[in-house]
Amino acid sequence: MHVHVPLNHPELSILPQPASIVREEGYFQLTQDTVIVTDQKTQAIGMLLANVLAPALGFLPSVLTDEHPHLPTISLGIDSQLAHLGQEGYMLKVTAGQATLRAAHPAGVFYATQTLRQLLPVEIFSSTPVNQTWNIPAVSVEDFPRFSWRGCMLDSARHFIPKQEVIKLIDVLTLHKINVLHLHLTDDQGWRIEIKKYPRLTEVGAYRKETVIGHARRPQGYDGTPHDGFYSQEDLREIVAYGAARFLTVVPEIDIPGHAQSAIAAYPELGVLQAPVEVATTWGIHPYLYNPTEEVFQFLKDVLSEVMAIFPSTFIHIGGDEAIKDQWKGSQQVQAIIKDLGLKDEDELQSWFLSQIGTFLAHNNRRLLGWDEILEGGLPSGATVMSWRGIDGGIVAAQSHHDVVMTPTSFAYLDYYQSNDPVEPLAIGGYLPVDKVYAFDPIPTVLTPEQAQHILGAQCNLWSEYVPTTKHLEYMLFPRAIALSEVVWTPKEHLEFSNFRRRLTVHEARLASLNVNFRPVEKLDQE
Ligand code: TNX
């Protein structure tokens, strides 16, 4: 006997909401006797599960590879019959005697464990032992994501994000079944990735003097602290491996041809002006561009070779955003290059420049991903577009058979204010409350079903000009990144904000136990 209460059973507060969940009768009790049984392919996932449960339980459940019929079991395994649930789908069945987690692929089993954690009492997220009964409600879940790209972008360039915080956020993001972490590693205000062949990139580019408070046009003095920091290649390998174990891909971004001032500060010969400049201390758009010469291409290829050796991601993000072309317009050398190549203007030069990079990436079996400005002057062949200035760029790209990740400012920019409350901390501007994120549909209605196939998914972006601390970073991310996780995971017809909000109220206790800062839901009423 079962009751169909998929969306608003008060006991079930899973985020993102599964595609289908049915409450059955009874509970499975997790005790000291419970064992986690896995097959070979899910053993590592079983150990991750045991390790996340252990602190609150006060004991580490055993992870075994043979069945123990007499013991209460959490059973993990691959089942090829579940191929219809896709690469990441899973089924989870909890009865009084056993919890069974199955999927056609390991990623699905991992997601089943994230659901299982959220079926336990919220105290399971505690970092210290809690003395209580660990009942898991009996359920039947069949679940799979709506999109394959479920992303979040963090900007380590404007304010460096320490490795330990990135690791912590991978735990929190993957709890919500986010599977892409896009790291914005280079910008005018900082170069944050060690490149062995060009040590000055971090020796010079990873340090900036005090930052001007306010905007470039409205400076209000200095913040009084120098900003520095970068990830060693070893740090990044650790981050990549930590993500991979949790089925999250880290996508690196090296911004080309603009947002390049920190690189040019390190090696002035890379720039159009060939003249010294400092790492930028103000926000906003800066005019420094890479010179489109053979030497600079070689530099970029060398950098990207080291990047590819660290990041197995198929997609390599090359930026392409906000490159104002004044320096190219003013340079006789660049104008001669445009003429030699038979190009019309600087936009076409950017397109040509990025096409060269795209070809280089393709030779290395990687795919070029860039912000929607890469449409200007002609989209490099095979390029994937990240549509940020609204959804129009993404529509054009999908209509011309290019893949797209939707990240429009209006629904996905977490550097915007999340409420009108006057005590809301300084943000870049804009207004994006959690219910607006929740209302986002990544599939534009104008696309045909065939074109819509090119929408890989969506991601939220958190630019960090006004996000100087990890605590504030978390405040800006949560709960809005969780709303986004539901937009990209849950079937559209199940999305209902009031229901999300109810589950979020329960979920806040989990975030608090994980020591994650967030903007409380109750404050929604005070806007
Ligand atoms: C635009 S979005 C940028 C970033 C800024 C952001 C501030 C994009 C591709 N470029 O460099 O940080 O606006 O919202």
What does this structure look like?
The protein is 32% helix and 21% strand. The protein is globular, with a radius of gyration of 24 Å. It has an 8-stranded mixed sheet with strand order 1-2-8-6-7-5-3-4, with helices on one face. An 8-stranded parallel beta barrel has the order 9-10-17-18-19-20-21-24, surrounded by 6 helices. The chain has a two-stranded antiparallel sheet with strand order 11-12. The chain is built from 17 helices and 24 strands. The longest helix has 18 residues, at 346-363. α1 (43-57) packs parallel to α2 and α7 (294-310) crosses α10. The chain starts with a strand and ends in a 14-residue tail after the last helix. Residues 1-7 have low confidence and may be disordered. With 527 residues, it is of the alpha/beta class. A hairpin with a 3-residue loop joins β6 (90-94) and β7. It folds into 2 domains: 2-143, Chitobiase/beta-hexosaminidase domain 2-like (Chitobiase, domain 2, 2-Layer Sandwich), CATH 3.30.379.10; 151-526, Glycosidases (TIM Barrel). Ligand TNX binds at residues 321-322, 371, 388, 413, 415, 428, 463, 465. It comes from Dictyobacter formicarum. Residues 147-491 form the Glycoside hydrolase family 20 catalytic domain.
Task: Give me the CATH superfamily of the largest domain.
Answer: Glycosidases
| Name of the CATH architecture of the largest domain | Alpha-Beta Barrel
Number of helices: 17
The CATH C-level name of the largest domain is Alpha Beta
CATH topology of the largest domain: TIM Barrel
Domain Glycoside hydrolase family 20 catalytic: 147-491
Keywords: Glycosidase, Hydrolase
InterPro entries: Beta_hexosaminidase_sua/sub (IPR025705), GH (IPR017853), Glyco_hydro_20_cat (IPR015883), Hex-like_dom2 (IPR029018), HEX_bac_N (IPR015882)
EC number: 3.2.1.52
